[in-house]
Amino acid sequence: GAGVSQSPRYKVAKRGQDVALRCDPISGHVSLFWYQQALGQGPEFLTYFQNEAQLDKSGLPSDRFFAERPEGSVSTLKIQRTQQEDSAVYLCASSLGWGQGLQTQYFGPGTRLLVL
Amino acid sequence: AQTVTQSQPEMSVQEAETVTLSCTYDTSESDYYLFWYKQPPSRQMILVIRQEAYKQQNATENRFSVNFQKAAKSFSLKISDSQLGDAAMYFCAYRRGFDYKLSFGAGTTVTVRA
Which CATH number do you get for residue B58? Predict the structure, then answer.
């Protein structure tokens, strides 16, 4: 595709609800990243996929957060039993692959999650 | 852990003038990359410019240029001939050589006065 797309763009959830956020990376991009951006802050790394393999999930804040990329393209970030502190913009990024010159990350527009 | 510091929460510039955004970082690595990303109100983060630590020459992309001072661990962004479309949040980011994680600063909001 032309760029990274994310859906929904906005999500309002009641505390305790489960939510699923979708990311469509640029076609052919091997690497996929999720970041969390709190209001007025820079993005913080959550997790990283290389194809379908989740190689790093060290940034996930709790076991309520789960990410998958089963076929190595589309990825879903799921948050179970949402809490107010989960309110943030969730950014997805993809990059072509690995090695010099291939690692520029291209970002999607983000999903703004508000937990009431 | 690497930290990236942007000490200017907000900057204002007159259209056609020049503005410089500061960024400092802390690392013990010798191989790393530095980036400036622009995030307009629509929130799509766009790469503005990147600098490889092993390159002494400062990167330039049209009206955007950096002043990379490796010893001082400083990486400032200069926007020349500012345009209304330059108004956005600008993030400085760091990545170790063959790592994949980006570490971002807190950002600087740039407003452009007509």
Answer: 2.60.40.10
